[in-house]
Amino acid sequence: MTLTVLLLTILASVVVLGAGAALVIGRGRRELPPPADLDRVTEEVIEHPEHPEPHLGDEDGPAEPPIPEAAVDTIDRPESPQGRLVRLRARLARSQGSLGKGLLAVLSRSTLDDAAWEEIEDTLLAADVGVTATDQLVANLRTRMRVEGIDDPARAKSALREELIGLIGPSLDRSLVSTGTDGKPGVVLVVGVNGTGKTTSVGRLARVLVAENKTVVLGAADTFRAAAADQLQTWGERVGVPTVRGPEGGDPASVGFEAVQRGIADGTDVVLVDTAGRLHTKAGLMDELGKVKRVIEKQAPVTEVLLVIDATTGQNGLTQARVFGEVVDVTGIVLTKLDGTAKGGIVIAVQRELGVPVKFVGLGEGADDLAPFDANEFVDALLG
């Protein structure tokens, strides 16, 4: 009888201990989801019929290029922005069929008649400079060459250089606003249509900031494409930067909120938030993008909104710029796929469309092929 009681006592103790352990584990697991206040700040629902987002299909353009091969188990030391500028000039200067080459070929003629000036106009328009900017450049250059009596190629090239730099805007502030206030991190929201190289640009921008000795947190708020979050996390791992991500198909605003929350808790300098690629023609998706920004700003102001545009898209890129600017107050532009200069005039056109500067340009497929934009360097590269 005593043995039976002892066995029953031991069995009861095991059951009690097991239940207690389960309770502790359960409590620990409940700490993983976002806190209760996150549900409150993200409860805003955007109603639109396009879910799941149409950027999952092929209509948004090709997928972004894969991350260049590299071992993720070692931490990279990214190239400095200064070194990138040198490569930018070298690459653009080597490109064939450039805007500058076409313009200089006409300006080098012994006689510039109306037909020659029309050819200059056609060259500028073909390079996506835009009608208004083209008219302004041609009028200024014609007047200057007549008044100053410019009749040799070297002086014509110098005049063209000065007029192009003037159109691009050398006095615009192209620095990245990456410093927050009251001890909070700077928050950079990156937006754009899928297929422009947006996620890749976020990863490369993280490398730029790390090269400047800044600490960074990445927010993978493109929750509708698991590949985008995986890609961003790999970029972060290569330079020792953490990535905050959520469940596939989850609320992008929640991920943005958590990324900023993590940045504040860790004392991080900058939080970079990648958003889902959005069709500028889909009102519901654009509304959701506005929600992401509003929810993030419940914790810290968004210091910069960068719009990523494919430099080869021409007028469609300008339409995208206009619509995105109406939704999230774009403060800077990243131009990707600017490997050649035949379409270099998009720099001028997109700045005029939005009234904000081009701050970074993508040069190629390498990990450090994102460089701060410099008007003088760009024009010098155009003109060889």
Keywords:
single chain; 384 residues; alpha/beta; Four Helix Bundle (Hemerythrin (Met), subunit A); Rossmann fold; elongated
- CATH class of the domain at 178-330 reads Alpha Beta
Beginning-to-end CA distance, first to last residue: 101 Å
* Largest sheet report: 8 strands, mixed
Return Rg in Å: 26 Å
CATH topology of the domain at 178-330: Rossmann fold
**Fraction of residues in helices?**
40-55%
Shape category: elongated
How many distinct beta strands?
8
CATH superfamily of the domain at 178-330: P-loop containing nucleotide triphosphate hydrolases
The helix-and-strand class reads alpha/beta
Strand content: 5-15%
For the biggest β-sheet, the strand order reads: 3-2-4-1-5-6-7-8
pLDDT below 50 for ≥5 consecutive residues: which ranges? Answer: 14-39, 46-63
- Tally of separate helices: 14
Average pLDDT confidence is 78
Topology as H/E string? HHHHHHHEHEHEHEHEHEHEEH
CATH architecture of the domain at 178-330: 3-Layer(aba) Sandwich
